[in-house]
Amino acid sequence: MKVTPLDLRQAKLTIAFRGYDKNEVDALLNEVx
Length: 33
What we know:
Blueprint: H1 5-10, E1 15-16, E2 19-20, H2 22-32
Antiparallel strand pairs: 1-2
């Protein structure tokens, strides 16, 4: 899947206790990589 800058701007991440949900951030980074 090709990811555009707009896709990254529109990504919705859940805010967890100390920032963003680590699992969601990891999943997004894996998708982009």
